Amino acid sequence: MQIFRRSIKARLVLSVVVMLAVALVALVSVISARTQAMAREAAYRYADEASRNAAAQVQDRVVTALDTARSLSATLSGLTSQGGTRAQADAIERDLLAASPEYLGVWSAFEPGAFDGQDARFVDTTGTDGTGRYISYWYRDGASIAVTPLTDYEKPGPGDYYVIARNTGEEKVIDPYLYEVGGQQVLLTSTTAPVVRDGAVVGVAGVDLPLSAVQEQVAALRPLGAGRATLVTASGVVVGSGAGAEIGEPLAGATGTAAKRAVESGKAVNEVVEVDGRPQRVVAVPIDLGQTDRWAVVIAIPTSTVLADANSVRATSIGLAAGALLLAVLVTVVIARRTVRPLELLRDRMAEIADGDGDLTQRVDESSPDEAGQLGAAFNRFQAKVGGTVRSITQAAERLSETATAVDRVSTDLRSTASTTSERAVLASRSAQDVDGSIRGLARANDELAASISEIASSASRASGVTVEAVTVAGRAAEQIDSLGRSGAQISAVVDLINAIAQQTNLLALNATIEAARAGEAGKGFAVVAGEVKELALQTARATGDITEQVQAIQAGTQEATTSMEQVRSVVDQIHEHNGTIASAVEEQSAVTAQMTSTGSEAAAASSRVVSAVDEVARVAEQASAGARTAQSAAQQLTAIAGDMRQLVATFKV
Predict the structure, then answer these.
(1) What is the pLDDT of residues 212-239, one digit of tens each?
(2) Superfamily for 374-649?
(3) Are 262 and 274 a contacting pair, CB within 8 Å?
(4) Sorted alphabetically, which InterPro entries does this protein's record hold (predicted)?
């Protein structure tokens, strides 16, 4: 079953085959059930029709004979009422038999003295016995017609043909029996009718109907070729049979039961029963004979015969269904191959991208107007979009690398500038310390001013030179600090550019992730790459944030250094002015010694501030150098990130 879980083609073929097989099985089942039902219905109708036709033919024969017996009874009743003779009765019966070749005999029997009251006269004459009663039996003897007296007419059983009608006063069709006629045993039935005169039964008239023709008719009845028919009387005695039943014996088994039910209910019976160990369709149709008697025709057809055509149709349907299923399997396999082929090509392309050289220039056929062509077109659009995204990431990585190089270069320049500023600040500090020492010496020598004017002048001259140099150094320091501020601004601009590139890279990675999600399984490889690119972009953003904080610290320190240098310059200018005053007023030193002392104190305080300011410049320069080192480290990280980005996108061919 593993193949069906891993192959769309196998699942498609299996689904179609299973559905078609179920449909065909259902169709064959319905057709089989329907044809069997139709076959049963047709067999029932055929058997019922055949039974009714046979019953009608038997009924026609027997009822006609019964009608003849009834007519003869009425004729003899009228004849005897009018004093007719036995010769007249014989003529009537003989002529009736001659006119009815289907009858074996025509007869009548009267009670003692009931015909003409002359029984004693006719004792042992032709057509009578020792009783002299009128009991003539006219029968066929070959091609001629003969007469003989009836026998056993008073014995129940053998004489039922007379006894029953006489005793009941009703018409009767006697159960078939063997009767010797012309030296031969003949199976016949007698249709009898009582001869009624003045409301009393005085005799019985009857017609003997041979059943050989009926037997042949019933035996020849073979519905559907394998069916068999049996004719039974009301008492279940077999009259004729094509099923091998014993003539004159009761019909036993399920067919006998069906015949009995049909006779008793007067309705046809149609059921499936076991006959000789085989299921058979049994149809029993009642035959009404006159007013009191009822026979039945029973037809039994094996169900295998009934369903033979239906089974043939079922076998044919199964064969056709199997052929259709096989053809459907072949067609489904071909269609499945053609349907799945574009998916297999797309799978191979995606595998080449994921496992091969990442060639995003591959395209698949999209000329088909169906879903396969639409999938190919979507794949091509996805390839184009991902290729564009990879190109954008490549370009962003290049720009990021260039920016990192620029940041590294600026950081190097910043470190150099900060180092120079620091060195010059040290020189300025030393000069300021010298000035401070000189001014303090000037204060100590204030008491000796009067005696050392020349020395004061010399000292004032040196102080003036030192202040000039301090002004110059302070100016250069201010310029270096200003340059440091501009460098910090440049670094800030570069960091902003890097941050913008990182944001754009993050957006591109997000777009690539979305496109990969839309592609489903096919875009998993791109989703991984896009995630790594996004992580690199986030690292870049964090690095640029660190650089921004460092640059802001450098700019703040530079601003403070600029302010301090301005103060240094102001103080040095003041010192220079004071030295000028000292030089111009050497002659007046004696008078203004107190003032010089005060001025010397101020100069000492100012020189202390100069030293502090120069130290602050040195500290700010050191901070700028540290910030430059941090910026250079961040630039190196950006360079590494850009290299990783280039390495990732280098796996794709665009």
Answers:
(1) 888 888 888 877 777 788 888 888 888 8
(2) Methyl-accepting chemotaxis protein (1.10.287.950)
(3) no
(4) dCache_1, HAMP_dom, MCPsignal_dom
